[in-house]
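Internal tracking record. Fields below are filled automatically when a chain is submitted to the structure queue. Please do not edit lines marked as system-generated. If the sequence contains nonstandard residues, flag them in the REMARKS field before resubmitting.
Queue: standard
Priority: normal
Entity type: single polypeptide chain
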Amino acid sequence: MFIREINQEIRYLKGIGPKLSLLFEKLGINTIGELLLYFPRDYLDRTCLDTLKNGPSREKINVIVRIIAHDFIGYGRNKTLKVHVEDDTMRGALVCFGRNFLESVLVPGKSFLITGTFRYKFGDLQSSNFSYEPLEDETPEFSPILPVYALTAGLSQNILRRAIRAALNQFGPGIENEIPCSLMKKYRLMPKAEAVKTLHFPENGDSLKAARNALVYEEFFLLQLIMGRRMHLRRVTRRKRKKIGFILKQKLVKRLPFILTQDQKKAVSDIEQDLFSPYAMSRLLQGDVGCGKTLVAVLTSLAVIESGEQAAFMAPTELLAKQHADNIARLLEPLGVNIAYLSGSVKGAARSRLLSALKSGDIGIVVGTHALFSEDVAFKNLGYVIVDEQHKFGVMQRIMIQKKGESPDLLLMTATPIPRTLTLTAFGDLDTSVINMLPEGRKPVITHLTREGNEHRVYDRIRKELDSGHQVYFVYPLIEESAKSDLKDAIGMFEKLKKEVFKERKLGLIHSRVPEEEKKSIMENFRKKETDIIVATTVVEVGVDVPNANCMVIEHAERFGLSTLHQLRGRVGRGADQSYCFLIYGNNLTEDGIKRLKIMMETTDGFRIAEEDLKIRGPGEILGLKQSGFLKLLVADLIRDQAALSKARQDALAILEDDPGLIKPGNEVLREVLLRAPPFEEELADSG
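SYSTEM-GENERATED OUTPUT FOLLOWS
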């Protein structure tokens, strides 16, 4: 979102000065424009007061409380401030997760207006999701609905409110609309100047809703305009690919011991259509864990190889790349296709021979790690780039491998399902395919929850599965013991499990410090059933495929994100036998930790898990980066505002289809918006 031409430094705003401006900088506010776009995170409606007694029956309440006393719960790094409060009806508590600094703010004896959600927990009426307003700081010059902003030490709500009010009075009337008048009229949107002012200081609920609707639509529209621009920039005309009979694909499909799912067939068809279109493909292939997206990539690569070109398959780790190379070789070498594996550990004469064969065109598909875009790697005719676990690579890395060919087709793959709204924003410039169906015969993994201290029950069940000939993973959050944490670690538990719990079994240990060759050897032994148990960190989260392993045990499960838990659970359930996932959780559960474990119990659907993960963590965390630039949504919410996103996307793409250069009368402002956006590759490199 932009506010044009308001780049004056905030220190020149009346009432701020050099000292206060340094505090504003901590909030990322350096200019007047950034101040005006620093919207409230909540509101206090002083006209609607409630009581603590009514808290449990309401979604959220505004209540005046007196601070009684402080104490702390938990120990060490988990030590959390608990503030005891009361009103005329009863007592309650404010649990300040991550906000222990409130000890010097919520002082006993003072009264505060609290807005929050109150529920009974451990016998107390508690709120851990609350905002506060000192009653003595009430400012009658503002409306009854007070904006509440995120703060930093040294800044109060009133300082921020006064600064924003001053900025609005001086610069607000000059704020211009940045979307076409036709769309303003079509949706009856509030003018931007009025919407910005109202979002900060609403007179009532209706005006607040109208202001938010206007700014949400504008935010999505401008974002989709940039996404549409990227799509047009990617449409690079190239030579026509040689027509083929898809003979290699037909041969491979006949050799498969199973039938492709409908999702796989649809994805293959969509990708092949792109491969023989006039433009280079840019497609995102989403496949839930175990749904067979790698096979789709292999089948479609055969079309490129049959046409006389080469394919590159890039994976983030040597362990995963080697596994892909072995699996692809088993599928394609009987068809006469030459496969090569390249990583940093391939050196000397072997590397020289491989690079020579790659350059001469003797290799049809090369599988490797970041080593594929090394300076000495050259292809005869690279036509297809496949990137597995695309979020593990930076954007410039993907661009580097593409530059090894002449506008090669690009397929990005992820086994971490992405919610539709997030796909339209972060990947709105890509075509998408989804594989959500499990291969025939696969059974959903059964998930069990176990409280820490009852591990022996899990161990007993694991023994039964081992006695039946199955294999097991144990996953821990730390590599080794830490003085700063009481969490279990992989190295320590490997020794305990080996010497005390499963003395008669063969165990292997894998974590990020284990050399790559040793990792590959350990996993190969596990795959050959020469090892019964793998003890690991999340290094086994991606790509490990051992059908005989049917049990996943995750200790301190509350410390892992939903995506990681889902990926780890996906390491089992790859064979015909019933598989199990045991989530062992600690005693100090946060509200988010409880939500994550409940979701894991309720569903194995990766896309539903992704939607819930979006609600808990937000889009920036799910993408693996804190979003910046146009991807930072200031007002819009990807869950609440899905309808607005769909409308904005349709409108933006329609304008670009009619006027790609935005040079027609009425589109000048949009062209200016695009010119102020970072250049395509530079923007992606900064965020990648």
